[in-house]
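Figure 2 data, in text form.
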Amino acid sequence: MNFDLPFIPERTVRPRTSGLTMMMDKGLGLREAEHFVEANIDYTDIVKFGFGTAFVTKQLEEKIKLYRDNGIKPYFGGTLFEVFYARGKFEDFLRLLDKYKLDLVEVSDGSIIIDHNEKCELIYRLSKERTVLSEVGSKDSGILISPNRWIKMMTKELEAGSWKVIAEGREAGNVGVFRPNGSAHTLLINKIIAKVKPENILWEAPQKNQQVWFVKLFGANVNLGNIAPNEVIPLECLRLGLRGDTFFDYLPKDYAERLKQVQSDEEEEELV
């Protein structure tokens, strides 16, 4: 940090296992990626090449090396796994991971249906040699999954070898653990965290209001993903209470209440 401030929450440091930030790279140029790393290296743990962008991204190998050399774990989005799997090319997908020396891999079934036992077998197999992220939830807003089913799938996938389970939210933040208007599906999330440890979940939260909601619920060291490149530092400020949305969250209670009362009194005076 550039200077000292009191009442700042303690953040985990890289390499982190909690308080993760996953940036979604949807096609940054190599120079843009270099500039991103320069500015955000301390706050970024994982970079996902969103959906199938790895197929068309220029200088992919150079970008992967750039991220890896700076202690950031790159990986292909789960949709690319599904693209290969749907075409009967799973072994080719493994060879692709080897080609680009990718340790981190995502197993998802948000676009296609994979028998859950089979999905867990894939997770188990991959976890023998790689770090596995597995995603739960459909990208189709018309497919509803009961809370008990969410819990069962997350639990089984963690048992199968997933490092973290990703709670589906899509890049738009309007499915999975979110309602179509982008608000958090509070009842569903509360039921999930009653059975699954929050530190084992990475919540896709591309919208600011979603990030605020999760930080307020879990604190500074919540795992959040699908963060746009230009939103990584703003998110870090949310985590640390350096934006209006979380300004009072880490101040001592009596101090925060006194400030709020002064603010309320001033607002009343303006109305008179």
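Caption note: The radius of gyration is 20 Å.
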